[in-house]
Design brief:
The complex is a heterodimer of chains A (about 160) and B (about 170). By secondary structure, chain A is mainly α. Chain A contains 7 helices and 3 strands, in the order ββαβαααααα. Chain A starts with a strand and ends with a helix. Chain B folds into 2 domains: about 35 residues; about 120 residues, Rossmann fold. Chain B is built from 9 helices and 5 strands, in the order ααααβαβαβααβαβ. In chain B, strands 1-2-3-4-5 form a 5-stranded parallel beta sheet. Chain B is elongated. Classes of the chains: A mainly alpha (about 160), B alpha/beta (about 170). Chain A: GO terms for molecular function: cullin family protein binding. Chain A: Belongs to the SKP1 family.
Chain lengths: ~160, ~170
């Protein structure tokens, strides 16, 4: 089993199974460009620095990739049926503890930076689920969105929203 | 509302949704059904992001009891949506018919369009070849009642190029 070492922004080393990293478009490109797959390259001697990802976040990302090992990675951006995507129970449990905390935000940003499409999709879907069925004031409170609309603007939006009720 | 958000941010661990870049918020919005997405427009930035995001809608029903606010909203959605199934029920009033004809042209990408009329004479009046032609440009599959053979032939010539499929009942 080939291991590749990822180095987080706080300089922690994470030896990760080569196979898992196929899920990350960013790392996959690096591996190819650095010829780490070549037999005569000593992959263990060439760690990949990830200056935008902190150690605790990278640990979560690797944990997620381990669970999703072998999942097909979807090509391109297909946003056609996003409203119908369901977050599997395992992922829901994985995200939940940090859902309203900065850790989930960091995980989502890392998924975007590392180009892990399935993680980004599920993470964003989980965030979007927190909006579902909530009233305006609840959304404002949960996500800390101050009201900056004039009463007239707010009324116009409220009337538009009625259409979709 | 006297929000004390600033004071709270310092105190507790916080998911700063508004700290995310627009593209990512837009991506998050893309997972929401229209109803929730509309309701998520909680400040000017979120409103703008919502306005610029694309939609995929599975099913839209345009009925005759639609009011002006809904027309405005429909226009917003029409121009940026891919819609699976649209049902258009034409009303029996001249003013509304004009509005309906106008709004349907705002749509860009419909997979399946079903058109219904309350009144058959009215249907023949509306379903002129030019209007039908417009419909065939926005939708790949059209189900339509009451269209004259002449109009259908005109459209057929164009549809061959557009790869549209349609069915009709005479």
């Amino acid at each position: 089993m080939v291991l590749i070492t990822l180095v987080s922004s706080d300089e922690q080393n994470f030896p990760v199974e080569r196979e898992l990293l196929k899920q990350s478009g960013t790392i996959e490109t690096l591996i190819v460009n650095m010829n780490l797959d070549d037999e005569d390259t000593d992959a263990a001697a060439m760690p990949i620095p990830l200056p935008n990802v902190k150690g605790d976040v990278l640990e979560k990302v690797i944990q997620w990739m381990e669970h999703h090992k072998g999942d097909p990675v979807k090509e391109g951006d297909n946003e056609d049926n996003n409203a119908e995507i369901v977050v599997p129970q395992w992922d829901d449990d994985f995200f939940k503890p940090a859902m309203y905390g900065s850790k989930h935000l960091e995980l989502t940003v890392a998924a975007s930076y590392l180009d892990i499409k399935n993680l980004l999709t599920l993470s964003c879907k989980a965030i979007s689920n927190t909006f579902k069925g909530k009233t305006g004031p609840q959304i404002r409170e949960e996500w800390g969105v101050p009201n900056e609309f004039t009463p007239e603007e707010e009324e116009a939006i409220r009337k538009e929203n009625e259409w979709s009720e | 509302m006297g929000d004390n958000c600033d004071a709270e941010v310092g105190k507790r661990d916080y998911f700063d949704l508004l700290g995310l870049p627009n593209e990512m918020i837009s991506h998050i919005f893309s997972f929401l059904p229209v109803k929730d997405r509309m309701r998520a427009r909680k400040n000017k930035r979120l409103n703008k992001i919502e306005a610029e995001s694309k939609y995929y809608l599975k099913r839209v029903d345009i009925r005759s009891d639609i009011d002006s606010y809904r027309f405005d909203l429909m226009r917003i959605i029409a121009s940026k949506s891919i819609i699976g199934h649209v049902t258009l029920r034409f009303p029996d009033s001249d003013e509304l018919i004009r509005k309906f004809c106008k709004i349907i042209k705002e749509f860009r990408n419909i997979e399946e369009l079903h058109v219904h009329f309350e009144n058959e004479d009215r249907a023949r009046e509306i379903m002129t070849d030019s209007f039908f032609l417009d419909l065939s440009k926005i939708s790949t599959l059209i189900y339509i009642p009451c269209i004259s053979p002449e109009a259908l032939y005109q459209v057929y010539k164009v549809c061959k190029i557009l790869h549209s499929i349609f069915e009709t009942e005479f």
